Amino acid sequence: MPKALKMDVEASQGVKNFLKHLLESGKVKGVFALKKMNDSGAVSYSLITSVEELASAEPLMPLMPENAGQALSRLTVKEALKEPVAAVLRPCELRAFTELVKRVQGSEDNLLLISPICAGVFPLSSATDGSWEKQMASYAESSREGKIHPGVRKMCQACTSFIPGRADITVAFAGRKDTGSSCHLILDTPRGEEFAQGAPGTPETVEKEPAELAPLREARAARRSEVFKEIDVQGQKGLIKTFAPCLGCHGCMHVCPICHCVLCVFDSKMYELQPWSIESEPESKGGIRVPSGTLFFHLGRMAHMAVSCVNCGMCSDVCPVNIPVSEVFSMVGDQLQKVFEYVPGRDVEESVPSGTYKEDEFAGIGEQ
Q: Does residue 291 have a cis bond before it (omega within 30 degrees)?
């Protein structure tokens, strides 16, 4: 069993105490984590460099204002961090950052990666109206019991990859009955062990995936099947019906951590409605859609990033017309990933299928 550090405080406070130790001891020069920005409940991922500011950090708060992998990419894409920084991010965010590092959109150098066994996050709408706070007691109970909380994002309810795979330190959270009174930091790597030396707590050994987590995995797998059955994207009619409400805001693209292009072709002049189309299409087709090309936008984005979709749910969360973008992309992504035997975020050394050429790949297709 892996080594762990146990602290006799509730999980969130335990993580904060550990981060405080890292800052005070000089082992890290900064902490990247969720932080309360004001008394209204606004939160943001922040780079914290003082112990005083760390008091406002909420590293395990069940909200995701953006995918932290995307934010870490922006911090490290120009050059690697010069000083050590401890970063707390959820498993899907860690997978996203791994995919971005593969695409030379960030660097893991000098990062201590900390990630919880995830119980899910609440939709952004619950952050703006404060309703998530009213659900925290039931959320904590569901987490301890290893059950799906009905208030978290749909993709969180259907996520089976809730245990971080590449963290230096895993926070034992979901499925642990004692998180209200104790905190276990599982030291997954030698780097994690090194940074934990001298930290307050008691050394122990614990199971990273105890039997108590099996029912949660099964429940989420069943929920995933239910979510996919609700989607109708079979054929052109199904696609048109699903994406017909699209306003062309491209919000789903801008929050997607895998869409990293500085300028997407769909934001360029190439796909703007042209004057000759406005003149000819109403006569030839009996009408013209404004904005145009919305279905092509979603299909194009799907072709580019579905194989690396990490199921973070950001795209559905920001959609102003409630298109199940994440559910569709996750379903397509599952199928593509099986074809290529590819798991997003599994290994930073594993090449992205779209950038790998194999001469004999799909050689049998079309030969019959």
A: yes
CB–CB of 313/154 below 8 Å? Answer: yes
pLDDT, tens digit (0-9, with 9 covering 90-100), for 140-181: 999 999 999 999 999 999 999 999 999 999 999 999 898 889
190 and 238 both lie in a single domain: no
Which one, of 29, 44, 7, lies nearest residue 202 by Cα? Answer: 7
pLDDT in tens, 87-113: 999 999 999 999 999 999 999 999 999
Total domains present in the chain: 2
The Cα-based distances of 217 to 5, 7, 163, 322, 354 in angstroms read 25, 26, 10, 27, 30
Query: For the chain, first and last CA: distance in Å?
Result: 51
Contact predicate 350/307, CB 8 Å: no
Give the C-alpha distances (Å, rounded to integers) separating 278 from 265, 270, 282, 296, 310. Answer: 21, 15, 7, 18, 39
Residue 165, C-beta contacts closer than 8 angstroms, at least 6 positions apart: 91, 94, 95, 345, 346
Residue 139 lies in a domain: yes
Beta strands 169-171 and 111-116, pairing class:
parallel
Full-model pTM? 0.90
Cα 150 from chain centroid? 19
Range of the domain at 244: 230-355
Residue 342 has pLDDT above 70, yes or no: yes
Answer yes or no: do 164 and 267 share one domain: no
Kindly give the pairing relationship between strand 202-205 and strand 3-7: antiparallel
